[in-house]
Amino acid sequence: MTLKxxxxxxxxxxxxxxxxxxxxxRKLYAERGSRGTTTREVAxxxxxxxxxxxxxxxTKQQLLAAMYDHFSEASAYVSILERMLEISGMEAQLxxxxxxxxxxxxxxxDLIKVSMAEEIAFPEAGTCAWRAPVAGKLMxxxxxxxxxxxxxxxxDPETLARxxxxxxxxxxxxxxxxxxxxxxxxxxxxxIVDTFVNGARPR
Length: 203
Hints:
By secondary structure, the chain is mostly helical. 75% of the residues lie in helices and 0% in strands.
């Protein structure tokens, strides 16, 4: 059954409003944190009234959880890993995954930093913020298990997955601490993958 035109327009309008609210919540949350962000300010920035915001999300906590969920890109991990497996060769696959990881982390850097600072005070948001990395680690663990079984790598598959992801996480999140020019992404990916593979390759 297809939607009639008025129904389709109404549904589109509802979704557009929801996305505006989520985008506004992200902007204010990244600037001020959860305590400094009010639902009235989010509604104003989104161009809606506060009643509309609550009709969509219920509470401030539910709004922030929905915002994290929307921008976490959890579903993208499946697509990334599927595309990775279309590439020939483990090192080439890992370079592809590393490049995708850097771009994803850069898109979410603002949310990650604030969520790390506020996780103790707002554990629900922390749970949502880490949903995508947890999903990614589970899928990458299976990939690492296959590589270990094939004799291409050695070590515990889950630990290998965590180490691989952590290398890129640390590079992006600590990048502003280090002085000097930004390195080309592909050069960074190559160095990290070489370091990981050579450290985990069977001797």
